[in-house]
Structure formats: structure tokens, C-alpha cells
DNA sequence: AACTACCATTGAGATTGTCAATAATTGAAG
DNA sequence: CTTCAATTATTGACAATCTCAATGGTAGTT
């Protein structure tokens, strides 16, 4: 009566394995820029959003503890890649925005990552990648506990 | 000229986020059994495979450093969930096999995990989940550097 | 017997995850 | 205006994880 489905078919296991493989290769791709995956994520989010990207929102979107964001922003700020500005409307919020250098570094980083992705995703046709993206988004944000990507019909 | 594709559409980011969300909920589901995700994986692999599952193979399949397997097996063994038997053919290899208790605990764990998965995957129809599994397998094992799941046509 | 290669193991050091406590700020209630 | 609860960023402690180098035991080869 034991289901005993092989773990190699388990979605959680596969997700973890795939995520790990990709993250490792991204990590190598970013090493020359002295960036790690997390730093890159924060930097990139700081590049987007002309609106105010607070640390709290960063934590929510990245599904990280707010205290981890502090350290990440600290390092990026000390390297002159992002600004940390208190929100005039609510001075509890610190708004994270990329500097000019930050934008350039982020762009460089993204190109390196794209190159790294080739080794992983170029086997599979774009339509399937779109499908994958869709599914992952559903799973990653199904709880709605965090970042906004849920109902994606807006103005864009 | 900046591509500046939003990070929320990035496959690496989505993989990490989705993996994290699922892992967290699995972790909670296993807490009552005093198991974490990694321990469960080792235990489950020890349940499969009447053949010899060595620690080296565990490390390869789970994409972990061999030294981490040691600690995981140590704990499972101390709790009487797995055996660590030197391979008679090559005594360098330690074959990891689940005890009777181990099998029962693994089964219990799997049921709890399945229940936890309902919250994540029941939205999406089975065919799409199969497609997802397929894609993840390709990505997770594309390098062939590790565990065998590549050419899946065997005897089963 | 000497040598090379492999496996499990140990240990150190960095990175990350988790959680509680605190100061500053805000908004609302009295 | 004062008090109170809630929220944000921050700090610090501790556990868990990753990464890497070194070691002892074993196997196969020459």
C-alpha cells in the first residue's frame, strides 16, 4: 500500500535541485563583479521601480527576513551602488534606489547572467519557458503573503 | 538599449522563490517528525533502491558536498532510521538503507508532505504539473554531472 | 611493495536562516 | 497634547548550511 513515489519525481525536490543548479551557475557568472545572487537581486529591484522600493517590500518580494536586507543594502551602499533615502512621507521607510554606477553594474551583471542561462535554458523552446515562468509564478506567489505579482493585468 | 527585464520574470529568481516557498512549507509539515527537508530526502533515498545507495551517490543526486551527507546520515542513524553498511564488494563505500522504523517514518512524512503540497499545486491541472516536472528535470540534471535521471527509459 | 585514485570523515571559516529585542516614527484614541 | 499600539529598520545571538582542505582507510595498478 506504500505509494513510495520516487523522490526524483517529487516537485519540491526538483524545484530545489533546479534552483540550486541555476543559482550556482549565476553565482559563478557574478563572481567577477563581486556580486552574489542576493546582492544582484536587491540591486536589480533598486533599478526598477521609479516608485519607492522600501526594504520591507524587498524582504517580502524576496521572501527573506528583513534583517537580511539590511546587510545586503549595507554592502551595496558602501560600494556606492545604491542609495538609502528615508521616505519623506513616512520616515520609517528607507527607499532603496540604484546609483548611476549601480545601474551600469546591474546591466553588466544581467548580461553575464543571460549568458549563464544559455547553458540551462537554450535546450527548451521559448513557449515552454513561458509556461514554466507562469507556473513558477503561481507557485511562488500563490500565498499572496508577499510581493505583488498576482493579478498581472495592469497598465503595461 | 537597456533590456531591463523585471527580475520578477527571471527564471532563476522564480525558481529560487518557488523552491523556497515549497521548502518552507515542507519544513513545517515535517517538524512534528523532527525531520528537516534534507534528512527526509536522505531517508527517502535510503528507502528506495534495493541496490546500494552509497553516500557518494546521495551527494551527487542531491547536489550536496559529501561531507554534508555524513552529518545527515549520522543523525538518521543515531535515531535508528537508517543503517550504514560497508559494501562487501568495496568497503570504502557505505551503503545507506532504511530500517523498518525508517520506512514507517518516511511513509508518514510523505503523507504529510503530500498534504502540504495540496496548498501549492492543487490549483494547477495534472498535465501542467507533468510538464513542469519534465522541464525541471531537464534543468536540474542537464549537466549530467550528477545523479542518473537523464535517460529515463529503463526497465520500470 | 609502491603508487595512484577513490570514499567517508573531520574540521575550519564563511554565508545564510531564524528569531527576539530595540529605537525611531507614525497614526489613532483619549 | 499625551498615551498607546503598530510599523520600520536595525542589531545581536544562535543554529543551520555551504565550501574547502586535509586525513585515514581501501582498492586497483604497476
Care to describe what's here?
The structure is a homodimer of 156-residue chains. By secondary structure, chain A is mostly helical. Chain A has a single domain (24-141), classed as Orthogonal Bundle (Arc Repressor Mutant, subunit A). Chain A is built from six helices and two strands; from the N terminus they run ααααββαα. Chain A has a two-stranded antiparallel ribbon. In chain A, strand 1 (82-86) and strand 2 (94-98) form a beta hairpin. In chain A, helix 1 (11-30) crosses helix 5, helix 2 packs across helix 5 (100-121) and helix 3 packs across helix 4. The longest helix of chain A has 22 residues, at 100-121. Chains A and B meet through helix 1, helix 2, helix 5 and helix 6 of A and helix 1, helix 2, helix 5 and helix 6 of B. Chain A binds a DNA duplex (30 and 30 nucleotides) through residues 36, 38, 54-56, 64-70, 90-94.
State the fourth-level CATH superfamily of chain A: Winged helix-like DNA-binding domain superfamily/Winged helix DNA-binding domain
CATH architecture of chain A: Orthogonal Bundle
Oligomer: homodimer
Weakly predicted, low-confidence segments of chain A? 150-156
CATH level-1 class of chain A: Mainly Alpha
Helix-strand sequence of chain A: HHHHEEHH
What would the average pLDDT of chain A be, to the nearest integer? 88
Q: Which pair has the most extensive contact?
A: A-B, 58 and 58 residues
Class of secondary structure makeup of chain A: mainly alpha
